[in-house]
Amino acid sequence: MPAKSKSQQRLFGLALSVKRGETPRADVDDEILDIVDSMSEDEIEKYAGTKHDDLPKKVEEILREIIRNELRRYGKNSKRN
């Protein structure tokens, strides 16, 4: 299954690095270790290997960006009045 966001793709990339022994387990948090311990390398690879060019940013970042744009637009409209 492909990753749904850039953030998720990076998370699984780090999990894959731990699974392969490239990153020490002590350097990552419990969320990563849960992934490493509960999934096979092939499963993790499916998420980590997702091309992230077309993936959305983390949902919170997208919402912040939308709000900023709306505030800018509203601010410009209110200056005209």
Describe the protein.
By secondary structure, the chain is mostly helical. The protein has one domain (6-80). The protein is 65% helix and 0% strand. It contains four helices and no strands. It has helices at 6-19, 30-38, 41-48, 59-80. The longest helix has 22 residues, at 59-80. The mean pLDDT is 81.
Task: State the gist of this model.
Helix content is 65%, strand content 0%.
Spatial gap, N to C terminus: 51 Å
**Overall pLDDT confidence:** 81
User: How would you describe the shape?
Assistant: elongated
Which residues form runs of ≥5 with pLDDT under 50?
none
**What is the CA-based Rg, rounded?**
18 Å
> What's the SSE pattern?
HHHH
Q: Using DSSP, what is the number of strands? A: 0
Q: Helicity, in percent?
A: 55-70%
